[in-house]
# Entry
Amino acid sequence: MDAHDGTYNQWTPGGPWYYYAMGYGTCKQGQDMCNHHPPCGYGYSWIGVWKSADMSDGSWTLVREARDDSWPKVVYFRVHTIYNPKTKLYIMWANMNNGPADYAVGTSKSPEGPFTYVHGINIGRKSGGDFDILVDDDGGAYIIYTATQLGHTMAVERLTDDYLSSAAASASTTSSQQLLLPITAAADPSNVSSGVIGNEFVEAPSFFKRKGVYYALFGNCCCFCGHGSGIGVYTATHPLGPYTYHNNVGCDAKTSLTPGCGCGMNHNLADGKKCSFYGQSLTKAQQNYVIRIPQADGSTQLVWTGDRWQSAKDGVKAHDLQYWSVLQFKTVGGLDLPVQFEWEDQIQISVLEAAQDHITV
# Structure
């Protein structure tokens, strides 16, 4: 499957699963980090709608290219799809590279598309990059994203009620007019932005809610990197924060972590020392998405997925693999936190369908 950095969704209980995913074609990267000359990943991309009854190996089929011909002809990254019950529309967001805005937004009445381009929108802070979108229990939606021109720093913003724009920036705002929201340690819940969360030079966030706690997971910048990145864990009791850093669960078990640091979380500490654990990612993957899988008892199983760039034996980017792991939690000081990853050759996930089978991947 030429399917990477996207979202897995089951829109109806027991129904089929969809994977809205980026494809990058048959180019070969030829170096550890991303390269532009010749372009691989930055020169071509497409968006696929994939479908499976149970997410088992070999069950995925390509439904279609997600976009119709209305979309701008630019390179896209990090597609995410959500559903708005008020407008009854499936809404697709994708990061645009050198496009007319930070993100492209399209809609469809069907989960299988095609999605029609609505507009390009800018984010509250300059040059939004990698992102994830959380639809909360009350119907409010929030985007977590990297501001690439502001030190590759992370922030959360509330979306408008139609999920088509950021509440922190008008859809018509040009890049030169983008609002520079203040960097704050704590956000007013009535506001539209969290301000900066965590370290500089980070990307590839995942954003989910569990038992009333909001979890933001992200790691060091890892541009199509072969060495992988860490998974820093931040929590808050409101989607706009304030967020507290806890640990980094994606490092090799032999890594001795410095407080406030972690593998793939390079940054300058207060004492001037540099925090760097290059190459010590356990999964050798860059975080993609955390899948929410409903269980028979009403709970939700959380499955972490990451793209293992440059893992294909033939070197073709379309053939790069993913790493999956069921997130396990441990109570620390009254708060449930993900535990340190350990390498797994296979995992078992429980998918609700007619037979309520356990699927091994």
Summary: Residues 171-189, 354-358 have pLDDT under 50 and may be disordered. The first strand starts at residue 4 and ends at 10. The radius of gyration is 19 Å.
